[in-house]
Design goal:
CATH superfamily of the largest domain: ATPase, nucleotide binding domain
Order of helices and strands: EEEEEHEEEHEHEHEEEHEHEEHHEHEHH
Number of helices: 11
Number of strands: 18
Helix content: 25-40%
Distance between the termini: 25 Å
Structural class: alpha+beta
CATH class of the largest domain: Alpha Beta
Oligomer: single chain
CATH topology of the largest domain: Nucleotidyltransferase, domain 5
Number of domains: 3
Largest sheet: 5 strands, mixed
CATH architecture of the largest domain: 2-Layer Sandwich
Strand content: 25-35%
Shape: flat
Radius of gyration: 21 Å
């Protein structure tokens, strides 16, 4: 019999602080754009969304403001988030979609009920027929190809733009976890602070992000060469534009504080892990996902600090989005299993 209510597109969304990835069933990842919206202050009209809006950050005239509606993994500006979601959903489905899609959105494991409700409501207002939520470590594990339904321990570290989620999973659920409001954005802010303190130079977020990606490191002992990159900004003494060179070893000093926070939280989760699951993690190691997993030397540092094997997932940036798509296809199984109580409608 034709099931009218299950007809339509299934969409998984990794609603990240830094970027939004959209997974469409049968097509894979169809969108990967920055979660930035440019708005006309006077009319409230959306000027640009995604990559086009990101290019405007810090470069807009007075009447246009480029904003990031999500901060530290949660909605900071509800109306703008809803409009951004509407734009991405319609772009993923095509302009003339007949049936509203089912949408699965991932959320950090430490969010409050109010924050959960805001995400679900924003998705429904943006055009979803049904909105489901799944915690990021579960989605990341599914996207990384881990078999989390078995009675064995798996440890996942998902480092996104706004949050780091660390969890030990077994029987399809989270056994112990920490959600840390530290991620790629905090890494960028640490670089901005370091350069301002050491060189009296003010640089922008985009410059800090480029510096992190090109020469940033969490473990300088493993460097083959001490890379150097030029960065431009405004001299705080003279007020004039200035260019300086920053090395990988200096980036290590800049990133030390947020990286230490991640390492400390990983150790805390390991301390809370039941002995039987700890034995499994020794065999399988730790799996890292998210854009922050690509920070040079972070996997090596975590391996040294925990004495465990640390693996970076294949295509770590799209793991969570792929996991939300897999979760939608296994929804009947996930909702029936007690361990998947965190998959919420």
């Amino acid at each position: 019999m034709f099931d009218f209510f299950n007809f339509g597109t299934d969409i998984g969304i990794d609603l990240g602080t830094a970027s939004v990835l959209v997974f469409v069933k049968g097509r894979g990842i169809v969108l990967n754009e920055p979660s930035v919206v440019a708005i006309d202050r006077e009319t409230g009209r959306i000027f640009a969304v995604g990559e086009e809006a990101r290019r405007m950050l810090g470069r807009t005239p007075g009447n246009i403001v480029a904003v990031r509606p999500l901060r530290e993994g949660v909605i900071a500006d509800y109306d703008t988030t809803e409009r951004m979601l509407r734009y991405f959903i319609s772009k993923a489905c095509g302009k003339s979609w007949l049936f509203k899609p089912r949408v699965m959105i991932c959320i950090p494991s430490g969010v409050t009920e109010v924050e959960e409700r805001a995400v679900r409501q924003a998705a429904l207002q943006a055009g979803a027929r049904q909105a489901y939520l799944i915690e990021e470590p579960l989605a990341a594990a599914l996207g990384a190809g881990l078999d989390i339904a078995q009675a064995t321990g798996n440890m996942v570290i998902d480092i996104g733009g706004g949050t780091t989620d660390i969890a030990v999973l077994s029987l399809g659920g989270i056994v112990c976890n920490r959600s840390l409001r530290v991620g790629g954005d905090k890494f960028d802010e640490a670089i901005v602070r370091f350069i301002r303190r050491e060189y009296n130079l003010m640089i922008g977020e985009r410059s800090a992000e480029e510096l992190k990606m090109n020469v940033g490191t969490a473990y300088p002992q493993g460097l083959v060469e001490n890379k150097v990159m030029e960065v431009r900004g405004r001299d705080l003494v003279s007020g004039l534009p200035k260019t300086i060179a920053i090395s990988s070893r200096e980036s290590y000093e800049a990133l030390a504080e947020p990286v230490d926070a991640v390492v400390s939280s990983v150790k805390e989760v390991l301390e809370q892990t039941p002995p039987e699951l700890s034995a499994d993690i020794i065999d399988k190691g730790i799996v890292m996902t998210g854009g922050g997993a690509l920070l040079d030397g972070l996997d090596t540092l975590l391996g040294k600090e925990t004495n465990l094997p640390v693996h970076i997932a294949d295509d770590p940036i799209s793991c969570v989005a792929g996991g939300t798509g897999k979760a939608l296809s296994q929804l009947h199984v996930l909702q029936n299993a007690g361990g998947f109580a965190k998959v919420k409608r």
